[in-house]
Amino acid sequence: MRRDNVMMAQSMAGPEGGLLGRLLRGSQRAPLRSRLSWLLEPSAMDLVFAVRSSLAAVLSLLIAMGMELDSPQWAPLTVWVVAQSSRGESLAKARWRIAGTVLGCCIGVALIAAFPQASTLFFCSLALWIGLCCGGATFLESYRAYGLVLTGFTSAIVATGAIAQPDEVFDIAMARGTYIILGVVCEALLAVLFMPTLQTQARKRLLDRLNGAFQTVRQVVSDLVSGRADAQTQGQVLTDLMAANARIEFDALEMGPRTHAADHAHAAVAAMMMVLARARGVALLERNAQAGQEEVPLPASLYGDYDVARQHIDACAHPVRGDRFRFKMTSRRHALEAVENGVRACFGILAGWLVWEVTGWPAGAGFISFVALVYGLLATRENPVLASTPFLKGALWCAFAAAIYAFWIMPAITAPEVLIVMLMLVMTIGGLAARKPATAGYAFSFNMFLPVLIGPGNQSRFSEVAFLNNALAFLVAVTFVGWTYRLVLPFRVDSHMRRTERWVAQRLKALAAPGSRVTVHQWLSENASSLVRILRNAQGVPQPVRLAYMQMQFRAMTMGMHIVFLRDVAKDPVLPQGARRGLLVFLRKWGQTGADATAWAAVTEGWLLRQRRGAPFEVREILQKAATSLRILAAERRDEGLS
Asked: How far apart are CA 478 and CA 371, in angstroms?
């Protein structure tokens, strides 16, 4: 959804370079076949996912129709919303979807009950509530954020659906909740049937991912110390580590309860990030030593971090009964983006209501529902502007396919078996597209809204006019949301980079405060997640600017790690009072001036080395590590001035 989008318009232009010309010339068929490889040559896992999700969607639809529900198309939409490539992802998303649905239904009923005859107050309250949900979701992670935005758009769907019939709002809320729970149950049932060896596969995937990351880190560290690894390589390794870290929660869910594999896996990833940050400092000292400036200390701490990572990986492979290990991971909270996200969603709902109010559009209630739903689906995207473009293109394909089904196929279906076959065909194609990054953005909207636009049911007659109004409301809503993301406080990666740079500088100074509780793992994790997020959205940023920014982030990560170490050393009662006092003076200057305090690093280092005389071995080791940290801080500052 965040990667390259294939532009089809260019392929239709001209008899020589167009689609017809390529079909007539055999030598030109390769590009088209390559772009359609996801459909023509799917892998076994992709095919299993597509068939499994399609069966679950069709099953939920048939059950909803058998229960004589009035809007059975919402059940397969839920299946595609919760359908994920792994069982753990589906479990995580399903439970938060159910929780968000229950709360959203309650809020929807409350809004109708509070403002039954006051449309202005009703829509202002609804817009404010959805804005709060979309903004608050920015502070959460994974599918917890999804659960919050789901609460917002579920309340909008229930409330707007009851505008014409406020006395039936409770029945509408119960119906919507029934559809969603039915879709979740069907998807879960098919996932269990298609993946019988769940725990074994989950543990194998987790170990393969961790062992692969461990070997990659060892290779990159070796290249980094020898001067062969550049910022681009370091950024790619961090991206892989953060991606592996994000998958741990889902693998742990599949492995079942009463296991601390997730804690050990997070700790292993954190140890690998420490290895990278420490190796950067060693590489910097090595480069200075080659210039005849300094003597490189032995990187014994690197092997200690390797051992920690290896121990946690082994703990994932061989669980120990009675293990009580806990590891807490944190990530950066984007306050300004949360406010912008909330304001944008609030503005969108109010603007959509004004459009309905001015035009008197008969399909206005459906339009508002679609607007709220699309805002909720795109609210937690890193860059909603980029995500909205393939979402709109997928919506166009969805409307086109739905029109074919609604006008020609559905009227000819007379048996449930035929309905299953016809829906399975197009849904399987959509499921295959969802597995490929280049087409996942299109499939995101295509899969979810196809059943809604087709609108199969057994309590009403099909109306072409109703279909056209519903499809138009859907397309206008998607276009409307896309333009509001571009016009109202749009996400700009350059602005985000400058804001992150200021945030890093402030946090780096605050690390030296005696009362700071930020650990090394927290500091590295927050900075790594911010850097990876920017790298995923910085395609339009010039490469020199991108590389300079990456160097700044790597420098801050290394500096912060050593500042936290010095802060902890300054609190160690084992050290002589004079050594602790010298470190506290340096840390106080760091808190006041930031990296400029490295001008005092050499003086503080000399003071610590003099304190080693006559001290016990343990104290001498700690003082030597503190002196090395001061030396790395000074080297990082000099490298910043040269870059």
From this structure: 7
The single-letter DSSP state of residue 103 is H
- Contact by Cβ (8 Å): 302, 236: no
* 8 Å CB contact between 537 and 493: yes
Q: How far, in Å, CA of 517 to CA of 513, rounded?
A: 9
The residue to which tokens 């580590």 are assigned: 241
Alpha carbon 306 to chain centroid distance?
Answer: 28
User: 197-202: long-range contacts (C-beta < 8 A, 24 or more apart)?
Assistant: 198/87, 198/254, 199/254, 199/255, 199/256, 201/254, 202/86, 202/87, 202/88, 202/251, 202/252, 202/254, 202/255
Rounded CA-CA distance 48/33 in Å is 22
Q: Report whether pLDDT(597) > 60.
A: yes
| Residues 332-372: tens digit of each pLDDT | 667 788 888 889 889 999 999 999 989 888 888 889 989 98
b/e map 183-214, b = 16+ CB within 10 Å: bbbbbbebbeeebeebeebbbebbbebbeebb
Residue 581, CB-side half-sphere exposure with 13 Å CA sphere: 4
Contact, 427 vs 54, CB < 8 A? yes
State the pLDDT confidence band at 330, using cuts at 50, 70 and 90. low
Could you tell me which of 407, 420, 466, 352 has the C-alpha nearest to residue 71? Answer: 466
The token pair at 19 is 């689609």
**What's the predicted TM-score (pTM) here?**
0.79
Could you say which DSSP state residue 574 is in?
Answer: T
> How far is C-alpha 239 from the geometric centre of its chain's CA atoms?
12
Closest CA to 440 of 138, 140, 40, 46: 46
Q: Whole-angstrom Cα distance, residue 494 to residue 504?
A: 15
Q: Cα separation of 210 and 241, whole Å?
A: 9
> Residue with structure tokens 């393969």?
208
